[in-house]
Amino acid sequence: MKRLAALGYLIALVGCESLPAETSAAPIEVEAASLSSDVSAEQRGAEYARVKCSSCHSVGRVGDSPLAAAPRFRSLGLRYPVENLAEAFAEGIDTAHPAMPEFVLSSRENTDLIAYLKSIQSSANR
Fold first, then answer.
1. Residue 47 and residue 31 share a domain
2. CATH of the domain at 87
3. Residues 96 and 73 occupy one common structural domain
4. Which of 8, 40, 110, 123 could share a disulfide with 61, CB 3.0–4.6 Å?
5. pTM of the model
6. Could you tell me if 58 and 20 lie in one domain?
7. Are 110 and 90 in contact (CB under 8 A)?
8. What is the C-alpha to C-alpha distance for residues 89 and 105, in angstroms, rounded to an integer?
9. Phi first, then psi: what are they for 103, rounded to 5°?
10. Residue 82 shares a structural domain with residue 96
11. Are residues 56 and 93 located together in one domain of the fold?
């Protein structure tokens, strides 16, 4: 009986110790990487755009959007001052077409994405 109790305790202890490491390791690594002083706001914004937006939008300096109706990020400055998008990003963009998910950016994500968008507007005519 003591062996069974000890085994149960050991399994519970090992299970509890490994669970937080598995569930929190990735977010800590991502957060640490995004806080690195070696990574600029433009670079973080480019990565955010690549991960969150590139399945529909062209997020780079060249190329077409995978979804034809999705505007190319490099041409957004032709439609609106890019700085004006910061408020929409902070409050959540809600568009008329159902394929666009509603999202809200954190303050840092917002700053980073705006910095990136500003950096690619010079190639809007490509």
1. no
2. 1.10.760.10
3. yes
4. 123
5. 0.65
6. no
7. yes
8. 6
9. -150, 160
10. yes
11. yes
Domain count, the chain: 2
Dist CA 39 CA 20 (whole Å): 28
DSSP per-residue letters across 37-86: TTS-HHHHHHHHHHHHTTTTS--SSSS--SSTTSPPGGGHHHHS-GGGHH
| Residue 47 phi, psi dihedral angles, 5° rounding | -65, -40
Distance between CA atoms of residues 59 and 52, nearest Å: 10
Q: What is the pLDDT of residue 42?
A: 96
Give the pLDDT mean for 37-47.
90
What does the block give as tokens for 89?
């990003």
Each residue's pLDDT tens digit, 91-121 = 887 776 777 888 889 999 999 999 999 999 9
Minimal CA–CA distance to 58: which of 48, 46, 47, 70?
Answer: 70
Range of the domain at 110: 41-126
Amino acid 109: pLDDT: 95
> Regarding predicted confidence, which is higher, 39 or 59?
59
Question: What local confidence, expressed as pLDDT, does residue 92 receive?
Answer: 80
- Beta-carbon contacts of residue 48 (< 8 Å; ≥ 6 apart): 105, 109, 112, 113, 116
